[in-house]
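This follows on from our talk about sequence and fold. I would like you to pick a protein and set down its sequence and fold. Go ahead and set the record down below:
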Amino acid sequence: MTLFLVRRLAIGLLMLLALSVLVFVLLRLAPGDPVSAYINPTVPLSPEALEALRLRLGLDAPLPVQYLGWLRAAVTGDLGFSIQRVGVPVLPLVFERLGPTLLLMAAALVIAIALGIPAGIIGAVRRNSPTDLGLSALAFVGISSPAFLTALLGLFLFSVRLRWAPSGNMLTPGAPFAAGDLIAHLILPAAILALGQAALIMRYMRASLLEVLNQDYVRTARAKGVREAMVIVKHAVRNALLPVITLIGSTIGVSVGGAIFVESVFNWPGMGLLLVNAVETRDYPVIMGATLVVGAAVILVNLLTDLAYAAVDPRIRVG
């Protein structure tokens, strides 16, 4: 188990390093001069002043040298300062926005599991019935619908037309904090973010359970006269959950992308909204810092998922 953990940690660190290289290079290859993000466009600067600023920021150095300088500082926890928020360090800014995003994603994951696993069990038990076909159609719609379109439709229907939920923000502006107010603002964006995850979990749960129901030990349990409900719950579902555990971990990365759109639509003050604003204003340090933290979080979740799967199934550790 220790060797398995070391291998996964090494792979995770290499993935995080590759992610940082990719984002850094893409930002530098984006159209426009990076130094333009550091100046006020309404204040003209001479070419000499621009060159002096470029030298001070280290933007005159070759790209590998710039990256190594950033990486050396990032390893020590120094992600630089925001360009648009003058004097604000990137790391505290990112961690300030991380909490709302984790809350949104955790709520979405709970909703997705609560909907996806029972729906998958029902679909497998009632295979090819109208109920199964209806659930499969809903899952197909959930998987196919892009997050930004689902968020806009949900906002229009449930907030604008029906007025069942607030239209944005995490709390009511100017009102004292209340758990009920937070839940009221959380439920709609979390449910929209959970749609794709729930659909994936439902499809995997259904396929896995159908495979388990055809195993010899399930037929043996039925032949012994065990009630069908006990066969499903005690013998089949527990074993069918193994691949679903891995899927749940892998959907975290997918939900990060969806959270960016959902937070933008609902003005949720999390990492997604921070990233969108940073891209719009070309705030390079914030983009790099936020991407690094989000990537580390996703890799950590996948690592914990691998460990949970290895703890349940020892064959994974051997492989």
Notes: The chain has a mean pLDDT of 84.
